[in-house]
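User
Take a look at the entry that follows and flag anything odd:
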Amino acid sequence: MTDLQPYETVSIENGGYGTPAFDWSRARDQLAAGRRHVIAVPYFLGTVGPGGVPHAAGVGAMWHDGDLYFTSGPGTAKARNLAANPACTISARLDDLDLTLTGRAARVTDEATLEALAAAYRERGWPVRVADDAFTAPYSAPSAGRAPWHLYRFTFHTAVGLGTKAPEGATRWRFRR
C-alpha cells in the first residue's frame, strides 16, 4: 500500500477547546481496514452537474494503494457529471471519524488496475469480472443500471475528519498529488 502522507495537518475545531490535530493514520488505517469487511463502509460521492446542480450518490468504494476506487454505470448522473467535471468529493462514516475527501475522479481503463480491483471486489463478495475496459457481473446496486460498469480512481488533495468518538475535534489534511 502506498503510504500517502499529508504535507499539512491542522486542527480546525472552532470552539477554542484546544483539541490537537489527528494523525492521518487515524483515517487512513480505517479506510484500508474497510476493504477487509464484507459490509463496506458507507461512501457518498458528490459531483456537480450542468448548471452547477449538486448531486450525491452512495458508491461502493474500495481503498487500494492510497486511493479510493468506485464504479458507475456510464448512463448514471454521477458518470455524466464526472465526464463533464471530474472535481468531486467522497464522504464516509468511519468507526470514530466522519471523513470528507476532496479531489478528482478519472475513469480507469488499464487492465492491470481493473484486474486488481476486480479481485478486491470479489474478495468482498461481488462476483465481478473485467470485460472491455469495464466491469461486468450478474448484479450491482439497483441504481447502477445494467453492466458494464466503469471503474473510477479518486485521487484526493484535501481531507477533513471530524472525530465522533474520543478524542473528538476536527482536522484538515492536505496532500501533494
Observations:
- The radius of gyration is 17 Å.
- The first strand starts at residue 8 and ends at 11.
